[in-house]
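Please review this one:
***
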Amino acid sequence: MTGWLVTGAAGMLGRDVSSVLREAGVPALRFERRELDLTDAGAVTRVLHRARPSVVVNCAAWTDVDGAEDDESAAWETNAHGVSVLARACARAGARLLHVSTDYVFSGDADRPYPEDAAPGPRSAYGRSKLAGERAVLEALPHTGTVVRTAWLYGAHGRNFVRTMAERAAGGGTADVVDDQVGQPTWTREVAARLLALGRLPAPAAAGVFHATAGGRATWYDLAQEVYRLCGSDTGRVRPTSSGSLRRPAPRPAWSVLGHGRWAEVGEPPPAHWRTVLGQAFTSVVHSDSAQGAATRAPRGGN
């Protein structure tokens, strides 16, 4: 068995995973949703049988957090059933699975970083579907399955909060941004690098749950102000508001700060502070040609 296989390869994270693997000289097959539907057990089995990958990275997911409240069964089909299909296929094929999950599996009412072994308690349909996917991976692959939770993603590919705020700043506009949700703004390339590191570890060491978010903590308001500052714009044009003013169908975790204890266990350095990483990523995220189709609103999607 040789090489890696990436599902959800057309997404913001999937594209960076593919790039990081290519730059590291790791051969990888990429599958977009239209090419491989994880809910089709026969298709998943055939692909893994032909490809015989040593590592599978699952970046495919239903990420419409609000849409899941109206259609939980659709979110469940991809995030729970589809992940279960993939995990069982990996078990039969002898492949490791790195599965990307989310902060939404937690209730969001803590006051300190959630460690990897914290008890989950999702408050949304999206979170429930993602937690079911996590459990499917850990049950089917107790020694070769890895759940990698991340949150507050931004990157060069597709819409994201950082690019939206940069567009507002460049256009001279104001932005009303919530200041009562706390998390860790995280660059997708940093998550991709962490996935690569996990895939290179011996399987037993990398089994279980890891958190791949940036260090430090911020509100969305803090992040928006930092984007305006990096654009050379007046940070006073960013105005704080509350989550309640947005009236969204799905509840957002008020606290999405994740702990990173397991990285030290496997000899990997802790994540860098989010401001440091944003400064490094800013030019590529804001000016990437592949991000030109980014939405002009400020979404709070899932991961």
The CA atoms of residues 6 and 57 lie 5 Å apart. Confidence is low (pLDDT under 50) at residues 291-301. DSSP finds eleven helices and twelve strands in the chain. The first helix runs from residue 12 to 23.
